[in-house]
Amino acid sequence: MIRLYGDKRSGNCYKIQLLCELLALDYQWIDVDILAKETQTSEFLALNPNGKIPLLVDADGWCLSESNAILNYLAASSDYLPVDAKSLAKVQQWQFFEQYSHEPYIAVARYIQLYLGLPDDKVAEYNAKHQGGYKALDVMEDQLAKTAFIAGEHCTVADLSLYAYTHVAHQGGFDLANYPNIRQWFTRIAGLPGYIAMES
Ligand SMILES: N[C@@H](CCC(=O)N[C@@H](CS)C(=O)NCC(=O)O)C(=O)O
């Protein structure tokens, strides 16, 4: 059985948990507390020298880190990962967008507000994260005006990559009132058979 190391309040970890539930995969979840620095122990660093969750350990001991790589590995041969080159490239386009133009803003603003309690010395950083985060939300809103899901008419791992932190963006102070297409997309994803909500 595969083992997944993660924290269910982390969007990067939740996206893996969500895919596992949508695919009804058998897995063992091992909770890792980031704030207690459990990613920095010698045992954990032996599995992922980068000291980050999520982490997948396969039945044969093979380790895989980076949330979107884990998603794509688990989704191989399922409808969540297309095989034709152009469709696959579009999925990856949105996953790279998530990691470079979305998560560093939206997830970090959420971390500053939810985990750190928005201390005074983080307010400037928090405000800067909002600028970048709204830009990413604008890009998503435009795409979701054209297609039901982010990379086309079918739900793929790209949707899970982006859903994870977007649907809790309000916990980082983002107001989604002016993003109706994103909010309708939330409803479509939450209606998928096997959907599981993120732990709060
Ligand atoms: N690019 C990585 C980011 C992973 C990441 O930043 N994980 C955070 C939790 S969301 C973490 O493990 N932080 C603990 C630490 O840096 O010590 C991914 O997508 O998996």
Explained architecture:
By secondary structure, this protein is α+β, with helices and mostly antiparallel strands. The protein is built from 7 helices and 4 strands. It has helices at about 10-20, 40-45, 65-75, 85-115, 125-145, 155-165, 180-190; strands at about 1-5, 25-30, 55, 65. The chain has a 4-stranded mixed beta sheet with strand order 2-1-3-4, with helices on one face. The two termini are about 25 Å apart. Bound molecules: glutathione. Glutathione binds near residues 39, 51 and 66. Glutathione binds near residues 54 and 66.
Descriptive keywords:
binds glutathione, 7 helices
Helix content: 40-55%
> Which whole number gives the mean pLDDT?
97
Tell me the structural class: alpha+beta
Beta-strand percent range = 5-15%
How do the strands line up in the largest sheet?
2-1-3-4
Bound molecules: glutathione
How many strands?
4
Figure out the total of helices. Answer: 7
Main sheet record = 4 strands, mixed
What is the ordering of alpha helices and beta strands?
Answer: EHEHEEHHHHH
Could you say which overall geometry the principal axes of the C-alpha atoms support?
Answer: globular
Could you name the ranges where pLDDT drops below 50 across 5 or more consecutive residues? none
Distance between the termini: 27 Å
Radius of gyration: 17 Å
